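Supplementary Note 3. Input sequence used for the single-chain structure prediction.
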Amino acid sequence: MSQNAYDIQRAAVIGAGTMGRGIVMCLANAGVRVQWVDNNPQMLEQGMAAVAQTYAHSVRQGRIGEAEAAERRGRVESAANYSAIRDVDLVIEAVYENLELKQTIFRELDAVLKPSAILASNTSALNIDAIAAVTQRPAQVLGLHFFSPAHIMKLLEVVRAAKTAPAVLQAATALGERMGKVSVVAGNCQGFIGNRMLDTYVREARSMLLEGALPSEVDEAMQSFGFAMGPFRMFDVVGIDLGWHARELAGKGQDDPLVQVDNRLCELGRYGQKTGNGFYHYEPGSRQAEHDPEVDALVVGVSRGLGYERRAIGAPEILERCLLALVNEGAKILQEGIAESAHDIDLVYLNGYGFPAAQGGPMAWADAQGMAQIKKRLLALEKNRGEHWHPAGLIGRLAAEGGRLSQA
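The predicted structure, written as discrete structure tokens, is reproduced below.
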């Protein structure tokens, strides 16, 4: 099949939630005609109205003219069912994170779409191979992980499944460029590049709350380094309840000591910015995170209740543990071939996770420290804090050779 068979001019989006809305606008803004499907007609109607409102707002802000807004709106139409979208070149599924649901959708799409159509899932962590396996066209299945809000965030993780054809990857990456995205190809693993590294970073941040730090101290240390926001402000923006509900749905992880502070906040209805209270307090209509002594007391209570002897944790330790967690996981991702280069990992962190541009990304920062230095610091953490700090094999090898992650 020639590469032109994957020329993406018409697309469909499944799901009219927040992510679906953002993805529809990304496509329409790039000149792609979009058909939009949701099994709840009311959700679809609200989605269409929300897209129209966003374009109207852009006109008021002077970002685009009324004619351009009308053209973009005109590229989006609702579709009643999968049969109505049988001729599209690409479908992006954007329903909530449930593997069985996504597999059902992909089976049904596979049965009705034209043979050359590409099927993509906007999942942030699910196994793309398991989704591709239920179709008769695994070479044309991949992940397109947009970041929220999708029409604003620059990053797009293009997730390569085991059988994804090179021409399909190329077509998806080219579409990313048309949408103005920084497209980074990632291999298929839990969390891909960005969220897999984020898990280790967040784990350290949460551990330090139990050991003696307060949310504002962790965030201030990361923000002083240059992060757009620290981990707990990030949770407030995203919604603390997302992880809480995900653990409830999965029926596991809710008793992990590390999430007990989050659980308590959610039980109190403190979901973050959207409810006016989370790790911080927000005045009505404001996004300004204000320090809340009640949260400090809750953190201390949870940590003592779990049997921790609290101690003072300074900014240098906070930085060391959060940054080295990112670097060590990044090195593992590189050695496993999940990322094609250290530069790709840095692009993910600069464009999707607010890593300070002046530092060049976590891998560039590590290279500036020197691999021997990074290895030594990881070994010290391993000795004091456990074997999950054991340096990635790649770091050991580069330290011995005097090499850099950027050359790996």
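The mean pLDDT is 95. The radius of gyration is 22 Å.
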